[in-house]
Amino acid sequence: MVTWVIVALVAAGYAVFGVYSVDSDESAVAFVFGRAVGRDVLPGIHWNPPWPFGRVVIAKAAKNFGMPIGYRIAPAWDQPISDLWLTGDTNIVSGRLNVQYSIESLTDYLVSHEEPREFLRRTGERVLTRFLVSEGVDGVLASRRTELRSAVRQGVQEHLAAEGVGISVQSVTIEELAPPREGRVRDAFQDVQNARSDRERVVLEARAYRRQIVAEAEGEAEQIISEARANRHRRIELARGETERFLALAREHARAPRVTEQRLYLETLERLLPHLETYVVDSEEGGAVNLRIVR
Amino acid sequence: MKALISIVGILFLVIVGVTTTVVVDETEHVVVTQFDRPVAIHSDAGLHWKAPAPLQRVTRFDKRILFSPGAEIELLTADKKNVLLSTYLSWQIADPLKYLVTLRTRAFAEARLEAIVQSELGSALGDLPFKALVPAESGGNELVQLEERVYNASARVAASNFGIEVVSFGITRLSFPSQNLKSVFARMRAERERMRVATVPRAKRRRKRSVRKPTASGRTYLPLPRPRRRACAVRARLRRRARTLKPLKTTRSSIPSSARSRATKRS
Q: Phi first, then psi: what are they for A155, rounded to 5°?
């Protein structure tokens, strides 16, 4: 009697080991004698026969994992990974990507493929190679990064789905895409960039200088023109004034010619010979003496 | 005494249970052989029966898609250029019995598969000039075609000879041996140098002859050609007009005759 009770207790205690819980961001696969009896188990508390009759694998389903392509995060003892890729115009670029993925189906991830992560990495390399080989180096480095990211993402996803690996790609980021550091190539590319920006700068400076000169010249031109106009006005007015003066004189002369002539004569003498004393003698009284005394 | 018998009995049952059952995992094919002759294949996971150890043995094969990354291969193209290729194979054991008979171990299988791939790649690449592999214009289809060709050839051989189904074959990297890399880098450097020289404006390369700054097209800027020209034209016009200026509000007849002969045209 007592032995049966002890056996029951032992069995119960052993059975407790089979209880497992799955969190809300997790997924699980339960095996009994190697057979997957619980596929993609939903969150909650479940029971599975404990070892050695069964086992449970629990993993984070919603979390994003990262897979580097073209480099390694942790140091490795097998072959080093190269980050050099060939482009369509027989140039070489250095490229490093990071693929963010999540486990879509834990069952597939565990059961269908031997090395899902390694397969992901190689597929990434394969798609990257294919894309770069169909592009030119200047295009790739400057303007085609978005296309590269989406091409890699789409290509990798297609291959993963075709082999049923159970992984889905969330995003692809470019860690580095640049001319290779080796062989001073990167410096040479940088030199071209510098030369181009120098040219931009010189052109802008020249344009600014031109604008400045033209503005100054226009200002000067305006000044010259307005000066000339003012001059014109002045000369016209001057001429007008002289004309008026002459006409006034002419009228006066018409009215009293001899008097005016005499006046002009005397004024001219005074102007030309300033030290001259001039006497004017009225010749109408007495005899017709018309003396002009010049001393 | 009774307890001892029951313990021994339980132990015996356990031993019997272990030796007569086979646990087949989801990821396995299990072949049961009797005196090196296969008698049963279990591809479905779970618990299966077999006769105990010396009579029947068990060999396990991976049922999953297996992944074999190839080593870097150096091959010659049709125009005698050295190319480094990295590849991988995804394959599955489709027929465990055939696999057991012909290959048996993973290492042997990988070696055979790699040999097939290498020979097929070598012959395919030997037909192509290097330019055909990296045509930026035709959208890189050559690479896909190459993969397809190797895939088809290897799938055929693997299925018929070894019971292996090749799932996919991929070329993961195209590169050059390190010696050639150096010359590629040198070529890239030279190309960039050419581009750099072409970018520098012509004016910068001339000696400085005057204080005037050069523009990007190389011409030096001469200030004020037009405005000064215009001012001169205005002045010339003024002079001409002044010479033919008429007196204001009077005609020639209004000037008194006594004054007319003495009037000068000087303004």
A: -60, -45
* Separation of alpha carbons B200 and B19, rounded Å: 84
Per-residue DSSP letter, A82: P
Q: Residue B267 above 90 pLDDT?
A: no
Q: Which residues pair with A94 in a beta bridge?
A: A84, A178
Average pLDDT over residues B231-246: 76
Contacts with A, B 43-82, CB within 8 Å: 44-47, 62, 64-67, 69
DSSP code at position B266: -
Using CA atoms, how far apart are residues B81 and B179, in angstroms rounded to an integer?
Answer: 12
Could you give the C-alpha distances from B29 to A113, B90, B92, in angstroms and in order? 14, 17, 11
Write the pLDDT tens digit of every residue in A51-64.
888 889 998 888 88
pLDDT at B266: 47
- Which candidate in B7, B10, B22, B26 is best for mutational testing of the A interface (most A CBs within 10 A)? B26
Residue of A nearest to B212 (CA): A209
Distance CA A21, CA A24 (A): 10
Length of chain B counted residue by residue: 267
Q: In the 8-state DSSP scheme, what is residue A278?
A: B
Chain A closest CA to B60's CA: distance in Å? Answer: 13
Q: What b/e sequence results for B70-103 when a residue is b if at least 16 CB atoms lie within 10 Å of its CB, and e otherwise?
A: beebebebeeebebbbbbbbbbbbbbbebbbeeb
Distance of CA B256 to the CA centre of its chain: 105
Q: What is the largest CA-CA distance in chain A?
A: 193
Rg of chain A over Cα atoms, rounded to whole angstroms, equals 54
Q: Does B20 touch chain A (CB under 8 A)?
A: no
- Is B231 close to A244, i.e. CB distance below 8 A? no
Q: What is the ipTM of this complex?
A: 0.73
B66-69 and B82-93 beta bridge pairing: antiparallel
> With contact defined as beta carbons under 8 Å apart, do A92 and A129 qualify?
no
